[in-house]
Amino acid sequence: MVHSNAGSLNGRVAVVTGAGSGMGLATVKAFLEQGAYVYALDISQDNLERELGSEDNVTVIALDISDSAAVNEAFDKVRENHGKLHALVNAAGVSVPTRRAVEWVDDINHRMVEAMKKGEPFAPEFLSEIPDEDFDRVMKINLYGTFYTTRAAVPLLKAAGGGAITNFASIAGLVSLPMPAYYPASKAAVVGMTRSNAGELAPFNIRVNALAPAGINTAMMNQSGDDHVQALLSLQPLKRLAEPEEVAQTLVFLSSDAGAHYTGQVFSPSGGAYLT
């Protein structure tokens, strides 16, 4: 039986990574509105303090999500203060690892869009130009970071009698898109880990799902330039970027009792670009 307040998070304890901006920040605010206590994790102390420093029922923790020791310390604080956890949202991620890589991808996207406008063929080449350290960095943040937080969260979720984990994948991990391989590789791996963990943790009433967004109006999306945005929108029946607050409402649903029968699923807020 689902009660009328099934979508509420009142009294729940949550951890949200990537909480200083974008969809992570929108999720923190949505969780607070629903009565949760939130541990907000992000690499930027300045962003956390500026956006959430004056909020009640929030503990901000600045860390690099790819540092397993720092992640364990953050969850030790959750254990010391609350002894349990009801929801984990893994929103931290990066599409390109450096400013140099951003400029490189922007240039290719610009030339690709210009060729599309002229009806000319264009075959971008990424593989030969990706250095080891760029591939490693993206995988460490997007995949390893999600693994580190999940591993640290599970004992606390079990202590609560169950809960929900929602991981951020991407449409890039589900379909063929011309871009540096490190990003779709990391996000496809997140999908695989989500499904594996969903099967392992179901007996403990812990649900594990993933979101695979396309174009969302975030700083990470906009740093890629208008050409990249327009190329993505060309794939979508809905010709607009989604707002982070829209995605956050899906996180509320999946993290609450309203989403109690969903696990191992990949939800794609993609404006119709990905259909299953």
Automatic annotation (TrEMBL):
<comment type="similarity">
    <text>Belongs to the short-chain dehydrogenases/reductases (SDR) family.</text>
</comment>
<dbReference type="InterPro" id="IPR002347">
    <property type="entry name" value="SDR_fam"/>
</dbReference>
<protein>
    <submittedName>
        <fullName>SDR family oxidoreductase</fullName>
    </submittedName>
</protein>
<dbReference type="InterPro" id="IPR036291">
    <property type="entry name" value="NAD(P)-bd_dom_sf"/>
</dbReference>
<dbReference type="GO" id="GO:0016491">
    <property type="term" value="F:oxidoreductase activity"/>
</dbReference>
<keyword id="KW-0560">Oxidoreductase</keyword>
<dbReference type="Pfam" id="PF00106">
    <property type="entry name" value="adh_short"/>
</dbReference>
